[in-house]
Amino acid sequence: MSNFAAASRAGRRSARRGCKNSIPILMDNKRSKAEWMRRYAAFVVILFVIAFGTSLSIRANLGSSPISAPPYILSLVPGIGLTMGQLTIFMHVLFILIQAALLRKDFEKRQLTQILVSFLFGFYTDLTMWITGFMQMPFDMDPAIGYPLRFAELLAGGAVLAFGIACEVRCDSLMLAGEGLPLAISKFLKRDFGKVKICSDTSLVAVGTVFMFIFFGGWNWKMVGIGTLVSMFYVGFMVRVFTPHISWLDRIFIPRGERAAKQRAAAAPAWGSHRVVTIARTYGSGGNAIGEEVARRLGCPCYNRQIIDRTARQMGYTPEFVEKNEQNISTARLWEMIFTDHGIPQSMNPSKDDAIFVSQSRTIRELAHEGPCVIIGRLGNWILRDNPHVLRVFITSGRDFAANMVAGKLNITKEEAARKTDRVNTGRANHYMRYTGRQWTDIDGYDIIVNAERIGAGKAADLILQAAKQMG
Fold first, then answer.
1. Higher pLDDT, 28 or 359
2. Structure letter (DSSP) for residue 79
């Protein structure tokens, strides 16, 4: 249709794998004692998987992962007398104390369980380092053979680690202090968790590097090397690859009877037989005006700005804040989301992007239940994909046409309008990819695709109305 999505095309496949169904529309955190016990027991096993992946990565001799850098480097200091697992426990306890100091009254008492988790993880670290001892790659191997083998072991260890993290997130029970600290910092500073996590990982690598220079007098690629850099991005990417494929874990976490009851409770109430039209539109195509005309002729409400206002009231934000942050994911932000290590459950994620999407999704489903309506934008076609009475429309136009429309509306030059059009469309495309795992312009997501420039706004409305009436 247009080239506005080209900026994010390189990340499409990875985003599709990792983002699909990643954000629930409705969340129910009520769990029975039996379910909690299952989740805690599973977490004990998952923790071993995480420790094993960490140790396997270290054995590649290309550098440790960021979170392991300080304790691993210190464990190599001659005469220190402490194992990597013991040093990991000390580091994690320090992280917990910092969390309590930052959050104070907001520090949940149940998060003190991180102390027990830290001791268990420290034990697992020493155990898995012993188990993987025979897999240690010699640093002086023939480079033609050694580097491919070491890199393969690094990727294998990172994949195991990512699988463990994905399972930890799915388990949604406890978390490691290494994740709890950046979460506490993000809450304290009111910053996005993903960005804080990147800064936290970078800081840990920096601390490890300082230890390396203090105790070993220079740079050592076995301690901080290419493997450290790869782990910072590769693990987060692999978490997104695994996440859509581990829903089977719910059979372990949730007793069969309770699982069936939750599925019945989560099932959406039966949709009414009334028509709902969703309109996705490229910026400057005239989609808003066409949607309003369709609603006028159908005699039903048209929801656009109203969704912003309702979301703002529900979340305690200003409408201006919601409008600024909704459907506005830059390509750089999308890449950050793809590669960031998302090691916390969604129920604990303070991301404003996710919170706005969940709130708007709930609002759109409520509006669609109330009666006939036209819903403009905000992933309405995806959110209401289980409603058989929804007509999903995509309205587009040529780039020059859109630029002229925007220039006239905002009283700016055509060049400025063209840049704004590209920027807004890229943000909408990235937003769609983030929450659906699909391309915004994928024709499979729509029933009708209309080029408003070619046929005009009036005929576009006629075409949509004709299709909507045939549905009834």
1. 359
2. T
